[in-house]
Amino acid sequence: DGTYVLTKPGKAEPVSSQQTLLETLSESA
C-alpha cells in the first residue's frame, strides 16, 4: 500500500493501517 514505518534504524516495514502503525510503534518503544 506504499505506507512504511521505521521499526529499526535503517529498516522500514510496510504497515497496512494506522492501527498496525500504532501497534508497531508501541512494540518498538
UniProtKB/TrEMBL annotation:
Region (Disordered): 1-29
UniProt biased composition (Polar residues): 15-29
Record protein name field: Uncharacterized protein
Source species: hydrothermal vent metagenome
Taxonomic classification: unclassified sequences, metagenomes, ecological metagenomes
